[in-house]
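Example (one chain per record):
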Amino acid sequence: MRKLLVSLVAIAVMMASLAVPAEAKTKQKKYGVTYTWQQFGPIFGWAQDRINQPFGRLDGRKPSISGSGIDIYVIDTGIGDEDCNGHGSFINSLFVSSDLGIVKEANVVGVKVLNCNGVGSAQDVIDGVMWVIENADPSSSIVNMSLGGPPSASVDAAVRELALLMPVVVAAGNEASNACNTSPARVAEVITVASMNYVNMRSSFSNWGPCVDMWAPGDKIDGYDKLGEDQRGSGTSFSAPLVVASIAFVADRDNITTMQAAQTVFNESSNMPIIDGRCTAGLVRCKVLFLREEPYEWLRNDSPSWLQ
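Predicted structure:
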Protein backbone atom coordinates (compact mmCIF):
# COMPACT_ATOMS: atom_id res chain seq x y z
CA MET A 1 0.00 0.00 0.00
CA ARG A 2 2.83 2.41 0.90
CA LYS A 3 4.55 1.81 -2.46
CA LEU A 4 1.22 2.39 -4.21
CA LEU A 5 0.74 5.72 -2.40
CA VAL A 6 4.29 6.83 -3.28
CA SER A 7 3.70 5.92 -6.91
CA LEU A 8 0.42 7.82 -6.98
CA VAL A 9 2.09 10.92 -5.50
CA ALA A 10 4.90 10.71 -8.05
CA ILE A 11 2.39 10.48 -10.88
CA ALA A 12 0.47 13.44 -9.49
CA VAL A 13 3.61 15.56 -9.33
CA MET A 14 4.56 14.59 -12.87
CA MET A 15 1.07 15.42 -14.19
CA ALA A 16 1.13 18.75 -12.37
CA SER A 17 4.43 19.66 -14.01
CA LEU A 18 3.02 18.78 -17.41
CA ALA A 19 0.03 20.97 -16.73
CA VAL A 20 2.11 24.14 -16.16
CA PRO A 21 0.88 26.66 -18.76
CA ALA A 22 3.29 28.00 -21.39
CA GLU A 23 3.23 31.47 -19.83
CA ALA A 24 4.37 30.09 -16.48
CA LYS A 25 7.14 28.09 -18.14
CA THR A 26 8.34 31.30 -19.79
CA LYS A 27 8.53 33.01 -16.40
CA GLN A 28 10.56 30.09 -15.02
CA LYS A 29 13.33 30.47 -17.62
CA LYS A 30 16.28 32.38 -16.23
CA TYR A 31 18.34 34.97 -18.05
CA GLY A 32 21.46 36.64 -16.83
CA VAL A 33 25.02 37.78 -17.26
CA THR A 34 28.26 35.82 -17.27
CA TYR A 35 31.66 37.49 -17.08
CA THR A 36 34.88 37.45 -15.09
CA TRP A 37 36.69 40.22 -13.22
CA GLN A 38 40.48 40.44 -13.22
CA GLN A 39 42.94 42.56 -11.31
CA PHE A 40 43.36 45.91 -13.03
CA GLY A 41 46.52 45.67 -15.14
CA PRO A 42 48.87 47.59 -17.42
CA ILE A 43 47.10 47.50 -20.83
CA PHE A 44 44.92 50.48 -19.99
CA GLY A 45 42.09 50.97 -22.46
CA TRP A 46 43.48 48.74 -25.21
CA ALA A 47 39.98 47.98 -26.49
CA GLN A 48 39.07 51.64 -27.04
CA ASP A 49 42.42 52.09 -28.79
CA ARG A 50 41.90 48.97 -30.90
CA ILE A 51 38.48 49.77 -32.35
CA ASN A 52 39.62 52.83 -34.34
CA GLN A 53 42.29 50.80 -36.13
CA PRO A 54 41.61 48.79 -39.29
CA PHE A 55 43.87 45.97 -38.10
CA GLY A 56 45.56 44.88 -34.90
CA ARG A 57 48.05 47.70 -34.41
CA LEU A 58 47.48 50.30 -31.69
CA ASP A 59 48.32 53.99 -32.01
CA GLY A 60 47.54 55.24 -28.51
CA ARG A 61 44.42 57.17 -29.55
CA LYS A 62 40.97 56.48 -28.14
CA PRO A 63 37.92 57.70 -30.10
CA SER A 64 35.71 60.18 -28.28
CA ILE A 65 32.79 62.39 -29.21
CA SER A 66 30.03 64.17 -27.34
CA GLY A 67 27.15 61.82 -28.17
CA SER A 68 24.80 64.50 -26.88
CA GLY A 69 21.21 63.80 -27.85
CA ILE A 70 21.73 60.03 -28.06
CA ASP A 71 19.88 57.79 -25.60
CA ILE A 72 21.47 54.46 -24.67
CA TYR A 73 19.22 51.98 -22.86
CA VAL A 74 21.13 49.37 -20.86
CA ILE A 75 18.83 46.42 -20.10
CA ASP A 76 20.85 44.84 -17.31
CA THR A 77 21.45 44.94 -13.54
CA GLY A 78 20.84 48.68 -13.29
CA ILE A 79 23.32 51.56 -13.05
CA GLY A 80 24.81 53.30 -10.03
CA ASP A 81 22.88 53.12 -6.77
CA GLU A 82 20.28 50.67 -8.12
CA ASP A 83 23.00 48.28 -9.33
CA CYS A 84 23.84 45.81 -6.56
CA ASN A 85 25.77 43.58 -8.98
CA GLY A 86 28.11 45.96 -10.79
CA HIS A 87 27.71 44.63 -14.33
CA GLY A 88 25.49 47.41 -15.66
CA SER A 89 27.62 50.13 -14.05
CA PHE A 90 30.77 48.77 -15.70
CA ILE A 91 29.05 48.86 -19.08
CA ASN A 92 27.96 52.43 -18.40
CA SER A 93 31.60 53.43 -17.83
CA LEU A 94 32.47 52.32 -21.36
CA PHE A 95 30.05 54.97 -22.61
CA VAL A 96 30.54 57.99 -20.38
CA SER A 97 33.59 57.72 -18.09
CA SER A 98 35.97 60.67 -18.39
CA ASP A 99 38.94 58.77 -19.85
CA LEU A 100 37.50 55.58 -21.33
CA GLY A 101 34.03 56.72 -22.41
CA ILE A 102 33.46 57.01 -26.15
CA VAL A 103 30.28 59.14 -26.02
CA LYS A 104 30.72 61.05 -22.79
CA GLU A 105 27.55 63.19 -23.03
CA ALA A 106 25.16 60.46 -24.15
CA ASN A 107 22.11 59.91 -21.95
CA VAL A 108 22.44 56.41 -20.49
CA VAL A 109 19.25 54.90 -19.05
CA GLY A 110 19.53 51.84 -16.84
CA VAL A 111 16.65 49.36 -17.24
CA LYS A 112 16.96 46.98 -14.30
CA VAL A 113 15.77 43.47 -15.15
CA LEU A 114 18.39 41.39 -13.30
CA ASN A 115 18.93 40.97 -9.56
CA CYS A 116 22.06 41.23 -7.40
CA ASN A 117 23.22 37.86 -8.74
CA GLY A 118 22.83 39.06 -12.31
CA VAL A 119 19.80 36.83 -12.91
CA GLY A 120 16.20 37.53 -13.92
CA SER A 121 13.25 35.71 -15.42
CA ALA A 122 12.24 35.75 -19.04
CA GLN A 123 9.25 37.88 -18.03
CA ASP A 124 11.56 40.38 -16.34
CA VAL A 125 13.51 40.73 -19.58
CA ILE A 126 10.33 41.04 -21.64
CA ASP A 127 8.96 43.70 -19.29
CA GLY A 128 12.17 45.70 -19.64
CA VAL A 129 12.06 45.46 -23.41
CA MET A 130 8.44 46.58 -23.52
CA TRP A 131 9.24 49.53 -21.24
CA VAL A 132 11.88 50.70 -23.73
CA ILE A 133 9.42 50.32 -26.62
CA GLU A 134 6.93 52.50 -24.78
CA ASN A 135 9.39 55.17 -23.65
CA ALA A 136 12.25 55.52 -26.14
CA ASP A 137 12.52 57.78 -29.18
CA PRO A 138 13.49 55.29 -31.91
CA SER A 139 15.36 57.84 -34.04
CA SER A 140 17.91 58.65 -31.33
CA SER A 141 18.01 55.48 -29.21
CA ILE A 142 20.22 52.40 -29.01
CA VAL A 143 19.75 49.37 -26.75
CA ASN A 144 22.48 47.32 -25.08
CA MET A 145 21.53 43.80 -23.96
CA SER A 146 24.59 42.11 -22.48
CA LEU A 147 22.54 39.18 -21.19
CA GLY A 148 21.29 35.85 -22.41
CA GLY A 149 19.69 32.54 -21.58
CA PRO A 150 17.89 29.51 -23.00
CA PRO A 151 15.95 29.76 -26.26
CA SER A 152 12.61 31.50 -25.74
CA ALA A 153 10.10 32.37 -28.44
CA SER A 154 8.55 34.97 -26.13
CA VAL A 155 11.84 36.73 -25.40
CA ASP A 156 12.76 36.59 -29.07
CA ALA A 157 9.43 38.09 -30.14
CA ALA A 158 9.72 41.01 -27.71
CA VAL A 159 13.32 41.75 -28.66
CA ARG A 160 12.47 41.48 -32.38
CA GLU A 161 9.72 44.06 -31.95
CA LEU A 162 12.21 46.40 -30.30
CA ALA A 163 14.92 45.78 -32.92
CA LEU A 164 12.56 46.79 -35.73
CA LEU A 165 12.34 50.25 -34.11
CA MET A 166 15.94 50.97 -33.08
CA PRO A 167 19.34 49.22 -32.99
CA VAL A 168 19.55 46.45 -30.39
CA VAL A 169 23.04 45.14 -29.69
CA VAL A 170 23.28 41.79 -27.89
CA ALA A 171 26.16 39.83 -26.35
CA ALA A 172 26.80 36.54 -28.17
CA GLY A 173 27.31 34.69 -24.87
CA ASN A 174 30.23 33.11 -23.04
CA GLU A 175 29.65 29.36 -23.29
CA ALA A 176 32.21 28.79 -26.09
CA SER A 177 29.39 27.37 -28.20
CA ASN A 178 26.98 28.30 -30.98
CA ALA A 179 25.29 31.64 -30.29
CA CYS A 180 22.25 30.42 -32.22
CA ASN A 181 21.37 28.26 -29.22
CA THR A 182 20.61 31.23 -26.93
CA SER A 183 18.08 34.05 -26.69
CA PRO A 184 18.15 36.85 -27.61
CA ALA A 185 21.50 36.36 -29.43
CA ARG A 186 19.79 34.19 -32.05
CA VAL A 187 17.31 36.90 -33.10
CA ALA A 188 18.11 37.85 -36.69
CA GLU A 189 17.12 41.49 -36.30
CA VAL A 190 19.60 42.28 -33.50
CA ILE A 191 23.34 42.89 -33.83
CA THR A 192 24.97 39.96 -32.03
CA VAL A 193 28.55 40.61 -30.92
CA ALA A 194 31.24 38.04 -30.16
CA SER A 195 34.54 38.63 -28.35
CA MET A 196 38.09 38.80 -29.70
CA ASN A 197 41.34 39.42 -27.81
CA TYR A 198 44.21 41.78 -28.61
CA VAL A 199 45.92 39.30 -30.98
CA ASN A 200 42.81 38.89 -33.16
CA MET A 201 41.89 35.51 -31.72
CA ARG A 202 38.44 34.44 -30.60
CA SER A 203 38.30 34.79 -26.85
CA SER A 204 38.28 31.27 -25.43
CA PHE A 205 34.91 31.87 -23.75
CA SER A 206 33.16 33.54 -26.67
CA ASN A 207 30.23 32.03 -28.50
CA TRP A 208 30.46 31.92 -32.28
CA GLY A 209 28.51 30.86 -35.37
CA PRO A 210 26.18 32.21 -38.05
CA CYS A 211 24.13 34.24 -35.58
CA VAL A 212 27.18 36.43 -34.81
CA ASP A 213 27.06 39.67 -36.79
CA MET A 214 30.20 41.40 -35.52
CA TRP A 215 33.32 40.88 -33.43
CA ALA A 216 34.73 43.39 -30.95
CA PRO A 217 37.25 43.38 -28.08
CA GLY A 218 35.89 41.62 -25.00
CA ASP A 219 39.01 40.24 -23.32
CA LYS A 220 40.53 42.13 -20.36
CA ILE A 221 38.46 45.27 -20.90
CA ASP A 222 39.22 48.23 -18.66
CA GLY A 223 36.43 50.24 -17.06
CA TYR A 224 35.04 51.31 -13.71
CA ASP A 225 32.69 49.89 -11.12
CA LYS A 226 29.72 51.79 -9.69
CA LEU A 227 31.98 53.48 -7.12
CA GLY A 228 34.34 54.72 -9.81
CA GLU A 229 37.06 52.23 -8.90
CA ASP A 230 39.29 50.65 -11.57
CA GLN A 231 37.88 47.38 -12.89
CA ARG A 232 38.86 44.94 -15.60
CA GLY A 233 36.44 42.41 -17.03
CA SER A 234 36.17 39.79 -19.74
CA GLY A 235 33.07 38.63 -21.59
CA THR A 236 30.97 39.32 -24.65
CA SER A 237 29.05 41.53 -22.22
CA PHE A 238 31.80 44.08 -22.78
CA SER A 239 32.10 43.57 -26.55
CA ALA A 240 28.49 44.63 -27.16
CA PRO A 241 28.75 48.11 -25.54
CA LEU A 242 31.75 48.97 -27.71
CA VAL A 243 29.50 48.46 -30.74
CA VAL A 244 26.72 50.47 -29.08
CA ALA A 245 29.15 53.31 -28.35
CA SER A 246 30.36 53.22 -31.95
CA ILE A 247 26.79 53.53 -33.25
CA ALA A 248 26.22 56.52 -30.97
CA PHE A 249 29.53 58.01 -32.13
CA VAL A 250 28.55 57.73 -35.81
CA ALA A 251 25.02 59.04 -35.20
CA ASP A 252 26.61 62.17 -33.70
CA ARG A 253 29.43 62.32 -36.26
CA ASP A 254 27.13 62.16 -39.29
CA ASN A 255 23.97 63.68 -37.76
CA ILE A 256 21.88 60.69 -38.75
CA THR A 257 19.41 58.39 -36.98
CA THR A 258 20.76 55.61 -34.81
CA MET A 259 19.37 53.00 -37.20
CA GLN A 260 21.25 54.61 -40.08
CA ALA A 261 24.33 54.84 -37.88
CA ALA A 262 24.14 51.12 -37.08
CA GLN A 263 24.16 50.28 -40.76
CA THR A 264 27.05 52.70 -41.35
CA VAL A 265 29.12 51.14 -38.56
CA PHE A 266 28.44 47.73 -40.04
CA ASN A 267 29.50 48.92 -43.51
CA GLU A 268 32.59 50.74 -42.29
CA SER A 269 33.90 47.86 -40.18
CA SER A 270 36.67 45.55 -41.36
CA ASN A 271 36.45 42.10 -42.85
CA MET A 272 39.45 40.29 -41.43
CA PRO A 273 40.48 36.90 -40.08
CA ILE A 274 39.71 36.02 -36.49
CA ILE A 275 41.77 33.05 -35.35
CA ASP A 276 39.34 30.26 -34.45
CA GLY A 277 36.48 32.69 -35.06
CA ARG A 278 34.24 30.02 -36.62
CA CYS A 279 32.49 32.72 -38.62
CA THR A 280 29.42 32.19 -40.74
CA ALA A 281 29.79 29.04 -42.85
CA GLY A 282 31.86 29.65 -45.98
CA LEU A 283 33.46 32.89 -44.75
CA VAL A 284 37.15 33.03 -43.97
CA ARG A 285 36.92 36.55 -42.57
CA CYS A 286 34.73 38.01 -39.86
CA LYS A 287 33.17 41.46 -39.55
CA VAL A 288 35.35 43.21 -36.97
CA LEU A 289 34.35 46.52 -35.37
CA PHE A 290 36.26 49.44 -36.88
CA LEU A 291 35.10 52.88 -35.78
CA ARG A 292 36.22 55.37 -38.41
CA GLU A 293 36.59 58.80 -36.88
CA GLU A 294 35.97 60.42 -40.28
CA PRO A 295 33.09 59.27 -42.51
CA TYR A 296 33.66 57.35 -45.72
CA GLU A 297 30.75 58.46 -47.88
CA TRP A 298 30.97 55.50 -50.22
CA LEU A 299 30.20 53.20 -47.32
CA ARG A 300 27.01 55.00 -46.33
CA ASN A 301 23.71 53.16 -46.56
CA ASP A 302 20.45 54.82 -45.57
CA SER A 303 18.36 51.64 -45.71
CA PRO A 304 19.42 49.95 -42.49
CA SER A 305 19.71 46.20 -42.72
CA TRP A 306 22.79 44.34 -41.43
CA LEU A 307 21.21 41.26 -42.99
CA GLN A 308 21.99 42.36 -46.56
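Caption: The mean pLDDT is 84.
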